[in-house]
Specification:
Blueprint lengths: L2 E2 L15 H11 L19 E2 L4 H6 L3 E2 L3 H4 L15 E3 L3 E5 L2 E10 L7 E2 L2 E8 L2 E5 L18 E5 L2 E2 L6 E2 L1 E9 L9 E11 L2 E8 L3 E6 L2 E4 L10 E3 L21 E5 L4 E3 L10 E9 L4 E12 L6 E3 L6 E7 L4 E8 L13 E12 L5 E6 L2 E6 L6
Parallel strand pairs: 2-12, 4-15, 20-28
Antiparallel strand pairs: 1-27, 3-10, 4-6, 5-6, 6-13, 7-11, 8-9, 8-14, 10-13, 14-15, 14-16, 16-17, 18-24, 19-21, 21-25, 22-23, 22-24, 22-26, 26-27, 26-28
Length: 392
């Protein structure tokens, strides 16, 4: 089946580093959360004064400094450069750019009171993602790093951009960590899903440092780093999305252009009986939905079947009200799921649908690179609702 696409204002430019600066400034002004360990109602006056945000493009273009990964590549042979305490400041990752072996993570930076800034020297640790929660590290990598019995990470930071400053200078309102990634044995980057943990020292040594508020997601596809479209971090394993277009009685329409995504519908049910089933399962319209994209890697993706009134186009079954959608790894075969929409009870009411003919659609919810929710809607198929006994 073909997919209908929605109309909206043309999206902003793709996320080149030069385009992140204005976005980063806006995000910085909106970031007002308290530091870890401080009261939520702490007076703003207690925070250290801030300087202008770093320009991500300027940081990425600056000369890199080599990083020695011995402590990770040969556990137990080197000292960890990670700060012993990260209570001094917090970075909130809100923008990611990844290309080749390089990654830039930008976001607001808040220095705590009684702490001193003397430049930005980010430490990065890349760990495989949890198989059941894309936004967290795999269980075998959750323990201390660099010890004799610690596993060797599949990737390490080889270079970083350091931004010097005089001790006691105002900390930038936002920072950009630019890292060059490799492996311990100089092999190609391994395919898969990873999380990047960022931290660093402040003036005062290892016992005074900062850390990112959340792990940053990054993929490796065909030996090259790749950011996850529309999602920076996902500690819950899911990504925020606006599912209001799938609310009960909403007119079903595509949203956005869903560039590159394709959806196919297989084995759609064309008639459904409301008669009770022996196993007590709800009577549902079902179909197998497959979503593909030429951009392989992690995608925020939710698939479902909805039923609409053919006269109004409004959703009468299969409505959704979730605030987050799952993350899936997508290869050339795409993501296939068997989906359903109950016709004997749903968000649109406890009563079953009236007898008659309705229209059903396959729907895929995705995020564009700016985190905006998009909906792909398949061509409709007719579904007859009746009371005849279902086949045994």
């Amino acid at each position: 089946m073909r997919v209908r696409r929605g109309q909206q204002a043309p999206p902003g430019p793709a996320r080149p580093l030069a385009a992140l600066t204005a976005t980063l400034l806006a995000l910085t002004l909106a970031a007002c959360d308290a530091l870890p360990g401080t009261a939520e109602d702490s007076p703003a006056a207690e925070a250290a004064p801030s300087a202008q945000p770093m320009d991500p493009a300027e940081v990425a273009a600056a000369q890199s400094t080599a990083v020695d990964p011995t402590w990770l590549c040969r556990p137990g042979e080197g000292d960890s450069p990670l700060p012993q305490s990260t209570d001094g400041a917090r970075m909130t990752p809100q923008a990611v750019h990844a290309e080749g072996h390089e990654i830039t993570v930008s976001g607001p930076f808040q220095l705590g009171p009684e702490h001193s800034y003397d430049g930005f020297r980010p430490e990065g640790v890349l760990l495989p993602a949890h198989p059941d929660n894309r936004g967290l590290p795999a269980p075998e990598h959750e323990g201390p790093l660099g010890q004799e019995d610690s596993p060797i990470p599949p990737m390490v930071v080889r270079e970083r951009v350091e931004v010097p400053a005089n001790t006691g200078a105002p900390a930038p309102a936002a920072v950009s960590a630019h890292l060059t990634v490799g492996t311990c044995d100089d092999a190609p980057l391994p395919e898969g899903q990873f999380v990047l943990q960022l931290s660093g020292a402040l003036a005062g040594g290892d016992d005074s440092g900062w850390a990112a508020s959340e792990d940053v997601m990054v993929d490796v596809v065909d030996g090259r780093l790749r950011a996850v479209p529309g999602v920076v971090s996902a500690p819950s394993g899911e990504a925020p999305a606006d599912l209001s277009p799938l609310a009960c009685h909403a007119v079903l329409e595509p949203v956005g252009d869903s560039a590159g995504y394709r959806m196919s519908v297989e084995n759609p049910s064309t008639e459904v009986s409301r008669a009770p089933r022996e196993d007590g399962s709800p009577a549902s319209v079902t179909a197998s939905l497959t979503v593909t994209s030429p951009d392989h890697g992690t995608h925020a993706l939710f698939q479902t079947v909805v039923v609409v009134d053919p006269e109004t186009g409004r959703i009468v079954a299969g409505a959704r009200n979730a605030s987050e959608i799952p993350l899936h790894w997508m290869d050339e075969e795409g993501v296939t799921q068997q989906e359903q929409a109950s016709v004997t009870g749903s968000l649109c009411g406890a009563r079953a649908l009236s007898l008659g003919t309705y229209r059903a659609h396959g729907v895929a919810v995705t995020l564009d690179e700016h985190g905006r929710t998009e909906l792909l809607v398949s061509d409709p198929w007719d579904v007859e609702i009746h009371d005849e006994a279902p086949p045994r």
